[in-house]
Amino acid sequence: MKRLIIVTGSSRGIGRSIALEINRAFNSDSSFLLLARDLESLESVKGQMVIDSKAKNQIHLVQIDFSAQYEMSDYFSILKNTLTSSQVEKFNEVIAIYNHGTLEFGSVSLIAQENLRQKFETNLFSIWSLLSALNLFIPYSLVPKQTHVNISSGYANEPVANWSGHCCARSARDMLFKCFALEQPGFKILNYEPGIVYTDMLKQACQFSNDYKDGYTSGRFNMPEDTARKLVEIIRENAFLSGSKIKFN
Ligand SMILES: NC(=O)c1ccc[n+]([C@@H]2O[C@H](COP(=O)([O-])OP(=O)(O)OC[C@H]3O[C@@H](n4cnc5c(N)ncnc54)[C@H](OP(=O)(O)O)[C@@H]3O)[C@@H](O)[C@H]2O)c1
């Protein structure tokens, strides 16, 4: 078994925990592709993964800014330049976790005055292009066993004043994966809502919401490793309906 596992936004927060937990669960015969901007943090995640897998897994790092308006062809080149064709020929499973994201605050008008396209680039278009590039690079005909997971958010289904940038991008991101599930019935596609998790993003949310601020200090929220472990369990059991959404709690 040779498995390709891709985790975007794996330098910190939920993505970092997903990379660590999935590496512990599949601790041999796996090639990882970890993507984010902060290479130093990615190196540190890699170091831990090498120790945990006793160097039986290969870890490739890609420093990338997902707001940079790359085309699908750019993502295809990144995949091609990182993975050799002899490696690709040996893969018989692909697990891709589309985790990276940013928070956007402000009224509908304010968000429009700021860099609207760049925000959607990071939270939606980069994911659309990467998913498509991967599907072209390793199609169903080459590796039928594939799991693609969007790290979703409660805001995908809930309109909130002054969170329109976030709600719209997250809603579209969920729909993208639901459509992809219908187009690729042989794959397993999941929208996973991680719960409210102690990360840098949550700290940022606390600046804009008293609910988050209160919950943050009272320890009401979840640890990244707990939600990551649950996701890995879901992927391993493989009992979910493709195109569905599962919430941590
Ligand atoms: N925390 C929560 O309570 C919560 C709740 C629901 C959903 N989520 C979702 O879970 C996912 C992870 O959130 P988190 O809380 O772990 O956030 P976080 O701590 O802020 O981490 C975000 C990750 O995304 C990467 N990233 C952000 N912008 C990027 C860019 N332009 N290019 C490349 N990588 C970028 C960051 O890496 P670099 O900075 O190194 O680039 C980092 O690894 C997000 O999609 C978020 O919306 C979080």
From TrEMBL:
Signal peptide: none annotated. It holds the Pfam family adh_short. GO terms for molecular function: sepiapterin reductase (NADP+) activity. The keyword Nucleus does not apply. One of its GO terms (cellular component) is cytoplasm. SUPFAM superfamilies: NAD(P)-binding Rossmann-fold domains. GO terms for biological process: tetrahydrobiopterin biosynthetic process. Keywords: Cytoplasm, NADP, Oxidoreductase. This is Sepiapterin reductase. It comes from Brachionus plicatilis (Marine rotifer). The lineage of its organism: Eukaryota, Metazoa, Spiralia, Gnathifera, Rotifera.
